[in-house]
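URGENT: need a sanity check before tomorrow's submission.

F., can you look over the Alpha-galactosidase record below? I want to be sure the sequence and structure line up before it goes out.
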Amino acid sequence: MEQIYKYKIADTTIVFSELSGKRLRLIHFSPEPFFADRHIPEELLEASAIVELQITGVNQPDHKGNKLGNTLIGRELVAKNIHCEGNKITIIQFFQSEEIYLEVETVIDGSLQENMFVWRSKVKNLGETIGIEYITSLNIAAINDSFIHHPFIEDRLHLPTNSWQGELQWKNARLNELGLYYGLDGEGLQDSTKYIGITNQTSWSCAQYSPFGLLENEKNNRISFWQIENNGEWHWELSDCGFGKYLVLRAGGPTEPTNHWWKKLKKNEQFETVPVAYGTIFGRYSEAIELLNEYRRSIRRENEDNQTCPVIFNDYMNSLMGDPTTEKELPMIEKAAEVGCEYYVIDCGWYSDGYWWDNVGEWKPSKQRFPEGLAFLTQRILDKGMVPGLWLEIEVMGINSELANSLPDEWFICRHGKRIKDHSRYHLDFRNSEVQAYATAVVDRLISEFKIGYIKMDYNTPTAGSDVDADSYSDALLSHNRAYLAWVDRLFKKYPKLVIENCGSGGMRHDYAMLSRHSIQSITDQTNYLRNGAIAAIAATGVTPEQSAVWSYPLKEGDNEEVIFNMVNTMLLRIHQSGHLAELNNQRVSLVKEGIDVYKSIRQYIPLGKPRWYTGLPSLDDEWFSFALETPTDIYIAVWRTKSLDCQFSVSLPMDVNEVQQLYPKKELGSANFFFNKNQLIVEYSKDKMARLYKIKK
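Structure tokens as predicted:
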């Protein structure tokens, strides 16, 4: 090692080493201190490149298998400059040969949130045309390593899995349980070919997994975590490096090996990777989730919605289900105002005389559904003191839309000379400026004609990209996704008080490329209120509480406890009220109103509260579970019982309890009881399908 560059940013020590030939290596990224006399093995130095960059036609002499890494260019980049300004480190490296001349700028930005670092790299081509097969955003070797080197195989990986109606279901396993072993090569001269990784394909960024993960080392009380911020395709992988002795994390956007992404760069053209946030701290998964939550708050667009947390009524879930009419809406508008809702959203179907799915595109109200006109309804909403909203799915058009079939193919995602049809929809291509202008005109018209202040922006039909004017399908998709984000940015600049809900068949696109812009996220489309509660209780692991919109939908055939359960599902997050309120009896309506009143009395704490899971992270179909928000003086905790033979449930807290109050329902119906003893809250529910909200004085 010829020179050391050492930086201390918050609690994280970051150390780079300059090797012969001015090749730079990241040798320490840790909450532990770094000692200058520490011996760094040669095999780890060689494996610790700052970026991995593969250019088409360049050999990878030490590469084996289909995992990323061991790129010749990544290892041979020459340091040009490294400096730290504030809490942001910028590294400029270059590579030059007879055929290739390029420069790579890597930024590691720790200025947004303590102990969180946003990584991104930009490659600029200074020579003849090249093709990029992949470039990592984040590349860290010896992750979770310590003074005392230990086999990484017992580190525990925590991953949030997703499905429509089954979002954010966490699973965990040790790395050796997933097939990654230490020092697999008997001669100790090569890495294995194994990697553990997740690849997201298509524009549903959270289709199977959320774009973040946690890796916990229980032996040295270390946890590392990452979040990829892209509203489309991404990839991360954990694998062995340094002849199988160390663990490396590589993460970023799409790559050619995983997503068939490929990018041509002509002379003086450049490409920037998607951002990846990374942190490593002493602690367990709960501390990691807390830090991720604070980081997500720090990168979010400043907006009033997340400060005030208004109550939203939406006519869809277990209610009109896409069949709105003036006759059906009027009594629900009355009831929504009566119980205290502040926004009223008319969901899908308002633009179609019949089936609402396959003819979307013009976004003009149905005269058959609304003989008096849609403006009559939105004015009634305004007269009742609520802000009107409408459902849109602006990125698609139905195959039976007259407008769609009159437009040129250049407006749509095409492959092999044909428009792609999926689930009776075409997908618009936001790389086309005419598409962006059309989308803006739709929003302008709806705001002007119907005075809406809320858009539920749904996204039910993902796509894999186009082969038109693109180097690869995946690069077309990345360009489309970035164009869509730029369009959203312009929309918020034009209408800063407009609330746009991010929905993707529920939570299929809850990434923080979207949620750094959108103030509210539909968490799930789950129609079973018991399972909806379990998803609500886990929502804040992936989305900040003040952005997490959860349905409350009292059923026509339900009872009082069912109403209470539905309301508790939402009361520490964002209320998406629904259900046939006009068809409930007075007592059940009064329970809805009471829940909203209680919510309004505590909602100022939601944007500040720290999510807590004192009884562990819940899963679908758990018998009992809880979720809490902690403030400096109080804890607000919801406790649910779904179906269990046990009538009692205990919550252990990290501090002594001084006082407990049941917040909702205020008047106990005779089915629930609670008591506390030192640092425990014990609840007793006399039957299944019950929930309560409590306030604990610390």
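My own read: Residues 3-299 form a domain with the Beta-galactosidase; Chain A, domain 5 fold (CATH 2.70.98.60). The chain has 14 helices and 41 strands. If you see anything odd, call me.
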